[in-house]
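Question (not urgent): is this output format expected?
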Amino acid sequence: MQFLELTDSEFEEFAQNHPRANFNQTLSMKKVRENLGLQTKLLGIKDDSDSDEKIVAAALVVIINSRIKSAGIYYGPLIDFANKELLDFWTQNLKKYLSNLGVVYCSMNPNFVYAVHDNDGSIIDSAHKADKEFQNLIDLGYLHNGWTMIGTDASNRWHYLKDLQLYFGSATDADYEELIMSFRSTTRQRIRKYKKNNLTVKELSGSDIDIFLKLLSDSAEKHGFTPRDKNYFESLIKHFSHDGHLKLLCAFTEDNIPISASLFIIYAGVCVYFHSGNDVRYIKLLGSYALQDYMFKYCLENKIPVYNFLGFDAVFDKPNGVLDFKRGFKGYIEELPGSFELPINSFKYKIYSILKKRF
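Got this back:
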């Protein structure tokens, strides 16, 4: 086997066909990261055991030049984590490669599913938890950052999804109605109610980004989080809009007032509900339901099989606004293993760990 830097075309062909393909591991995201001033590397493993060299693992690796130089692999690498021999080869060679760049540690949040849960948070099949994959990482020196219940941090350990393949037919109104009937009654009522509010959903272009950013800022102020800056979203729109991979939508009132906006990314058969914002003054008009309804129709028409609402706080036994909204669509939950750190320079990493605890 060979550990090496991959060309753009090699990486893209492998990444888009991988079982856990995701938009964080794409050439488009590589361009976004570079536009933010970050250094990137496309690394992989080729199996050269026969005449046809075959790529068996790959990752978009981001190099972060701060006071402590680090690397990040977001929702990757794309590798079989159950194959310990392959994972070991990847790990040892990655450490050598990053060491030569002066990297102290590599952070990583793998994209394999640790367990699948039902709509109420119960594990569907405990026999199929990915304990082997998790233990392989621990055995090879990856340090786990814990089984966090917070789902909206950088690693998004908890994902809420809806399987749309059950409703693929001829993309008729009947298929759409069958999907709507699969939702909880309160969600169905809200979808019917928003239609009575005479809202209009429009697709925005990059030149309309300030509309989206204003609504995102309103939500950030209400919920106490800091949104990404304009440069980040402009870069996302620029690099993911080709081939219909990105949708920026906004719901407007009869008076053309923007009340709710969302950014969706479609890649490898998954529609990801990525970022959203609302004008809290008009929350009762249900603009967020109008946007979801629009994208569900789009997914049915374009045979996109999976709808990913992304993260939430895994609190199932008490009111939970974000999760309750998503559970109204009656899907299922993928629990990911969380984030890990792989020390590259052991001495400097120990110092970094001590300082991180103190400050």
